[in-house]
């Protein structure tokens, strides 16, 4: 692989740049991440996936948001990373392997390939956790379900969960006006940065369609409005199942496409969906010089 080789892929329109730490000759600083993710000064992306060594799993992954912050988990990011590992020969043909993330070790399975390239991937996203001290959410209650949160002129009933990264799930049935991109972009950051979330949070606005289908709009921590999110889909499915609003197998519909989520009775999550490579190449010397400044 050439020095500073990169691949850019997307999972349902939520795109990432993949880099291999052993193959780049610059530090992935906050400035480097922000530049690479910027569509004008860099490649443009919803985040960076950095392949790193692991002692505990077959592979290691660090996930960075465009604002430079590090995420514990990313569902689309994991599917994109596992496609990269399989397509570029790192798994030596194996279709099942493990990946260590900041939010725990996950198992991956290449479900479907076409011409030797991974197309559909299932990720065991780990277990949904509702304990407020583990999410974390700074409120006195042990769990944060239907908790009233005032945000400017609105009061939301929030449901918080961690799937490795923190999520704040809001059903729109009593705030139907919130199922709208403009409204999500207005209130999303105010919730993301609310002081009850010491590590900030991802935010989802949810419309339940039936017992096996929900539709969501997403405001991501450190990334903003995105067309799809695997960890958000996992978080929403867990909250809806816990509240008895849906069954344990659910399709989450998003602007960028849909993901299949299945839960067991202990809230262990499986997520299945497509991934597509967009482009690959090497970062130019001039870009790297700018990043290093
Ligand atoms: N912004 C998220 C990470 C990426 C999540 C999303 N892209 C996904 O597919 O899960 C966070 O800071 O927790």
TrEMBL record:
One of its GO terms (molecular function) is diaminopimelate epimerase activity. This is Diaminopimelate epimerase. Pfam families: DAP_epimerase (PF01678). Substrate binds at residues 14, 65, 75-76, 165, 202, 220-221, 230-231. Pathway: Amino-acid biosynthesis; L-lysine biosynthesis via DAP pathway; DL-2,6-diaminopimelate from LL-2,6-diaminopimelate: step 1/1. Keywords: Amino-acid biosynthesis, Cytoplasm, Isomerase, Lysine biosynthesis. It is an enzyme of class 5 (isomerase). It is found in: Cytoplasm. HAMAP family: DAP_epimerase. The record marks 167, 220 as: Could be important to modulate the pK values of the two catalytic cysteine residues. It comes from Hydrogenothermus marinus. SUPFAM superfamilies: Diaminopimelate epimerase-like. Catalyzes the stereoinversion of LL-2,6-diaminopimelate (L,L-DAP) to meso-diaminopimelate (meso-DAP), a precursor of L-lysine and an essential component of the bacterial peptidoglycan. The keyword Cytoplasm applies. NCBIfam families: DapF (TIGR00652). One of its GO terms (biological process) is lysine biosynthetic process via diaminopimelate. Its EC number is 5.1.1.7. Belongs to the diaminopimelate epimerase family.
